[in-house]
Amino acid sequence: MKRRQLLQSAAVMAAGAMLPRSAWANKAADTLNVPLTFGIENIDRYYNSVVDGGILARHIWDTLIYRDPVTFAYKPALATAWRWTDDKTLEFDLRQGVKFHNGDDFSADDVIFTLNFVSNPANKATGQDNVNFIEKAEKLSDYKVRVQLKHSFPPALEYVSGEWPIYPGKYYERVGPRGMGEKPVGTGPYRVVSLVPSREFVLERFDEHYKDSPKLEKGGNIPRIKARLLPDMATQVAELLGGGIDWMWYVPADQAEQLAQMPNLTVVNEEVFRTGSLVIDATGRSGVPALKDKRVRKAIAYAINRQEMIDNLVKGKSKRLDVPCYPTQFGCNAAKAVVYDFNVQKAKDLMKEAGFADGFSVDMYAWRSREWSEAIVAYLAAIGIRVNLQQMDYFAIRDLMRSGKTPITFIDDGYYRLNDSATIWQRFFAKAPDDQAHDDEVKAWVEAAARINDPAKRQEFYDRIIAKVTDEAYWAPLFTFSTNYAFTKDLAFTPNIDEMPRWYNARWT
Amino acid sequence: MNDATATAAPAPAAPESPTAATLHRMRRHKGFMIGAGILAVMVLVGLLAPLLAPHDPYLQSLAKRRIPPIWHAWFYGSPRATTLHLLGTDQLGRDYLSRMLYGARISLAIGLSTALISAVIGTALGMLAGYFRGHVDAVVSFLISARLCVPLILVALTVVALVGSSLMTLILVLGLLLWDRFAVITRTATMQLANADFVLASRAAGSSWLRILASEIFPNLANAWIVVLTLEMANAIVIEAALSFLGLGVQAPLPSWGLMLAEGRNDMFFNPWIIAIPGAALFALVLAINLLGDGLRDVTAPEGRGGALA
Amino acid sequence: MARYLVQRLLLALGVIVFVSALTFALTEATVDPALAVAGEGATEEAIQQIRRQYGFDRPLVERYLGWLGGIASGDLGESYRMRRPVADIIGEHLPVTLKLGFLSLAFAILVAIPLGVLAAVRQNTWIDRFALSVSVIGQALPNFLFALLLIIVFGVNLRWLPISGSGTWQHFVMPTIALGYYAMPALMRLTRSGMIEALEADYVRTALAKGLSPGTVVFRHALQNAILPVVSLGAVQFGFMLGGSVIIEVVFGLNGLGYLARESIRRADLPVVQSIVLLISFFYVVLILLADVLNGLLDPRIRSTGA
């Protein structure tokens, strides 16, 4: 008994020693310390494609219009008004009196230089999908621009509000992407005071950020933000416990539960605009003919107990997914989807019917949580599919997928945070390198829908696409994601569904 | 490099046969006996894993995740710990003890097969270089220098990342990278032996070079060879664990100890046992192999001490 | 001696060319660089265009020679991912790794030599056994595991040391220990065996017989002889540390060459990967050359035969 008490008190002491060092040091220094998970080699947003780059870009730069993170409604930002003059033409009235961090005044020249520069293929912007539909940007007057698109492109405003930061034209012309990466200049609520490429970015509040900015909620924003690279999740947790950082996200569900026990930490779970699905190679080009059989693909969809995974592994606000799109996206009509409830017997029957009663072997590629992948491996093993798991990095898998070497891939996609279902279909059902289904009918529908501006007519095509993709089980949709944020109790922070932490709205409590 | 306890051992009083003398020295060498003991247990455990394991190591049960090991019931009054899972369960509710037992197989298999592949490559190259000398030796020496200049971890990481990881890839990659020490020692030893009387006699009797290498020279360098084999085994096990830790080693659901460490790492601040168990096992295995190797070196070549730079 | 040096230099050059060719072939054969360059969401035509533009459709040998030619003129090529010269990128990441390497080597030597000397002088006492245990444990504890233990104890529980980053000297304490202790056992053992040998040598006995103090004998005579091989082993170990710092850099959030290598491997950024492997091979070659020359100075037999 005595021994047990002793051990218990030792355990309590150990736990006490693990209380996070109060972040008062950071609070007193008025610096918010945050981790970056990926190296942003060039902070110029047109020349990086990592999530962290998008987050910092929203602090440093502004876009023409702003999408409200809660309502997803567009709001005026650098443009005070905008309109489609026809299918392929957008006009923007620009805000007057906006200043860049270097003192330059914002005007039409900045917009047209930025857009014309990054959309020129010769300048090799990284996220080509974000800009390659721009034909040209023209100046109509000092505060009015017209953007001509190459073809009708209904979701264009999503890109305008999300991925088109506006740079000071003269400066950008002089220094180019490289100079912008070394010394970024924008109009955003924070300006960069120092940076070490990919390793550390120190931002300071920009007090001349234009009035009426839709970004800032109210005063009291933290004067300095220091973002530094901490690629390893366990290191981030250690730093949060040790007080080295004030905030982190993507905390795995189990660790989030543990961190929530700590008296000095707040843990918040929020839905994110991201879904996880299995993409199945229906073409046979990856060398697994069994997957060409629709019944086998259906069996896979039936075999996975998504609810059990969500309850025990994924947790939080994640929800079961039956559609190949994000449920709240435009056109994501769940009523049209063929639904696969967990049913091992049915899965086994389908396997038998298809002539694979004894199962087969297959490689599955995944880059997200290894736990999730392993759970899926076990589910598929139960219906005789022997999965050889290839847990690899995203970039390696992407290349393998494009060259048709991945029979089953666990993908997750944030749709560039664009609120239109077709975003991901364009990539996975209509474009040569990524298309894993090679279904001409679906491809034709996706392409046709992309040229129609009338929502009701587009919806018709979307319904057909959802019905066919789920009936053929080209994908086995799994669940929507949710993200755990953990931060010191000294901090007031509100996460958003669009997976874009807004540190500029964080405050000390 | 000689062991204190070995050099301290007094010479056996009665004259014995060389084998008996070696055996005697082995029994008196503490490090060797400890290493051999641990390793024997690990090998036994690995071989008998299917009999010893209380559960299927791959059977997941999402409702029973991260049950703590049994001592948490004794000391901390954990209500979840149960004798059903003596070492608890992992993040997917799989029995940790069973995974540890099967994990011994993986580590040993990787260590042994990698070391054997490198041994074959290194020994072949080294003996050819040592026996034929001249141009053959120049080529082999060049290859050895080149191999020494390849940053091992980086190249292994690159290959595994690009080709895709599996047990097979890993064993092949490491096998192709760890042969240098074998080549160095066999080359030197063969050079010394090539002019020995018994080799010259065999050659005069018309034996082919292959036969001479295999039956005259190799048996005489077997002692040093086994020492290197243990060294490279330990090396391969550690590298596998490191690569698995970086997510580029053995693929789940194979129960590799390195992978278990990697999977438990996020949880280590809250449930330290989750990395302590595979960590301790890995440490014990590598320690055992190293002790065995050191002991063998002392026992088989008690006067050999060296500053050989490999 | 001059001939020996020239021979070694030529061999070193040959080794580098050979290793770089292997790396180049290996990486280029497994990855389609055009896909990597094209980036997210590129169309098939765009990929084809890049293939022509960058010359990825040319034969492997031709591309390798082009790359090698570039290196000879100081051009390591351009990163696919960052669109910046590889030389600049490496230049930014190298200092952290070099610093970590030097500190780790210094740590290893500073622990290994005194411990080795003590163990040799006090052979078969508790100090000797302690030194032996330290080295045996050091060899058996994988450095990433040790790094985790350090973080749990000194970073999270005691909070004596910062866990990640490279801002101050305190940031380097844990990474240095984690990387350096792995090299320590071999150095320690070599010091010990070298010292034992030296202490038994005639000149030491003579010196002692002449009435010189044991301290002088140990440090003036014996250590001087025992230390050269240790230094040359240290040089080689330094090379291993540069190549093996990946894990330590990942665990401690140090953004050095190892981290850069891992990131570039993940993204199939071949020019960066190839250049890093080449650079580290180059370091190895130079260090091994240094070690050889040291041994040559030490051992006249090597000098004369040039083996």
UniProtKB/TrEMBL annotation, chain A:
Its main location: periplasm. InterPro entries: Peptide/Ni-bd, SBP_5, SBP_5_dom, TAT_signal. GO terms for cellular component: ATP-binding cassette (ABC) transporter complex; outer membrane-bounded periplasmic space. Residues 74-428 form the Solute-binding protein family domain. Keywords: Signal. Transmembrane segments: none annotated. PROSITE patterns: TAT (PS51318). It is found in: Periplasm. CDD domains: PBP2_NikA_DppA_OppA_like_10. Pfam families: SBP_bac_5. GO terms for biological process: peptide transport. GO terms for molecular function: peptide transmembrane transporter activity. Gene3D superfamilies: Dipeptide-binding Protein, Domain 3, Periplasmic binding protein-like II. Residues 1-25 form the signal peptide. Belongs to the bacterial solute-binding protein 5 family. This is ABC transporter substrate-binding protein. It comes from Chelatococcus reniformis.
From TrEMBL, chain B:
It comes from the Bacteria. Residues 1-20 are annotated as: Disordered. It is found in: Cell membrane. InterPro entries: BP-dependent_transpt_permease (IPR050366), MetI-like (IPR000515), MetI-like_sf (IPR035906), OppC_N (IPR025966). One of its GO terms (cellular component) is plasma membrane. Residues 104-293 form the ABC transmembrane type-1 domain. Keywords: Cell membrane, Membrane, Peptide transport, Protein transport, Transmembrane, Transmembrane helix, Transport. Coiled coil: none annotated. The keyword Membrane applies. The chain crosses the membrane at residues 32-51, 108-132, 152-179, 224-250, 270-292. It is a multi-pass membrane protein. One of its GO terms (biological process) is transmembrane transport. Belongs to the binding-protein-dependent transport system permease family. This is Peptide ABC transporter permease.
Automatic annotation (TrEMBL), chain C:
It is found in: Cell membrane. SUPFAM superfamilies: MetI-like. CDD domains: TM_PBP2. The keyword Transmembrane helix applies. Keywords: Cell membrane, Membrane, Transmembrane, Transmembrane helix, Transport. Its main location: membrane. The chain crosses the membrane at residues 100-121, 130-156, 168-187, 226-252, 272-294. Belongs to the binding-protein-dependent transport system permease family. This is ABC transporter permease. The lineage of its organism: Bacteria, Pseudomonadati, Pseudomonadota, Alphaproteobacteria, Hyphomicrobiales.
